[in-house]
Amino acid sequence: MRRSARLDRRIQSGPTHLTLTVRGGELSWSELGARIAEFEARQFVLVTDGTAPRRQLARVRALAEAQAPTVLHRLRARPLPADPATGGRADADALPAGTVIVVGGERACAVPAAVRVPTDLAAACGPALTLHRPVPAALAWVRADLLAARPAALTRAGLVAVVRHVLAVCPAHYPVLAGLLTPGARHDARTLTALLALCADARSALVRFDPDETGPALALGYGKSLATAVRAALGPELAPGDADALGLLLAAAVAARLGLAARPTGRAHRDLLARNGSATALPAGADLDRLAAEAVAATGPVAATGPGLLLLADLGRPYCAGGRLLTPVDGAVLRAAAGELADGTARTDRVTVPHSRAAGTGPAAPPDRRDERPATGREQDGTGSPCDRDGGRSTVEIRSGPAGTAAQQKEFPS
Fold first, then answer.
1. Does pTM top 0.90 for this prediction?
2. C-alpha R_g of the chain
């Protein structure tokens, strides 16, 4: 695929589907107006969370009002510890009747809506691509050039979502992503479009066969429960996206401590996050006991996805025991993992748990390249394989579907 700021993807999940459309330039607004008209709504409800640029919100509002009466609904502010990407259903319960259009960041895009216009990369890679019932068909409309013009801090936060997809779902992209990431977090529209395609294809491959996201699609939420705990315990001290970065690192530390990983993956996590300029250690003086307590609450019996954490046996390989992808983790292990992250050390001692590798029933170790980076090609169980390199671009073959039977070729800048 040629590098372009234009992209069309369809994500199917049971009877529900979402169309991702990425465009650039002022002329694209007329196309969005035509897509909004296709819903033939009697009334639109325009929802925003206060993060959307005023001009962008005004343009979408004008397009909606040209088709039907439009009510503007601003989501009320929440306490900082709350996860901005959750609770969309609660927000939807307070909306007026009508066809919903959302414009804004993660919280706005978490609201079930017919049209989603994410205004930052984190929203575009995450909740904007989620298929919400009861909305049977939705459109995610992204202006890649406007995403590229947002503050670097927002882009850096959004790139953590891309890192999550690469670590948990498609590690074949690890070398390419590592070459792209920089602490400055400045990327052009074509690069952001390619990264959006990566996230959309990863989600499409998983939710097509797991529409309820209770099986393999749980990997799309890797580290999010722990990120919620970090946000609750340390929210005011963190830059945008750092809670999600620390959630990923905590998940890797827990897997290593329990002996679940076929080989340590923490360095791979830290490598990508450090290249992105994200946090790789807890702030000095962090309350580890409170963090452990919040983590227990976020991963316990009342957790949204059920008790336990999704952990990785290797990059792109969620750990599975007894048919479950969620591993119960007690407070002592979570407290010890947080301690490792506080002082920036990686402990080598491990605790043996049932079904772990030390017990002899865990996952078999893949070929060890001794550099903790993902093995390429079919050493990754068919998740994908770098095919060739041509000048300034790297062509990657993405395999999806049963046994990786569906193949696509995608180019990324190197």
1. no
2. 21
Q: How many CB atoms lie within 10 A of CB 51?
A: 20
Contact predicate 48/72, CB 8 Å: yes
Bridge partner residues of 52 (DSSP): none
Burial of 335 (0-12, 13-18, 19+ CB in 10 A): middle
* Backbone phi and psi for residue 362, each to the nearest 5 degrees, phi listed first: -85, -170
Is the CA virtual torsion 156, 212, 172, 322 positive or negative? positive
- Reported as type and span, the H/E element at residue 248 is helix 242-258
**How buried is residue 49: exposed, middle or buried, by Cβ count under 10 Å (0-12/13-18/19+)?**
buried
For residues 36 and 27, is the Cβ–Cβ distance under 8 A? no
Distance CA 113, CA 48 (A): 12
Q: Per-residue pLDDT tens for 51-87?
A: 999 999 999 999 999 999 999 999 987 655 566 666 5
Give one word for 316, left, alpha or beta, with left for phi > 0 and alpha for psi -120 to 50. left
For residue 121 the two structure tokens come to: 């990369």
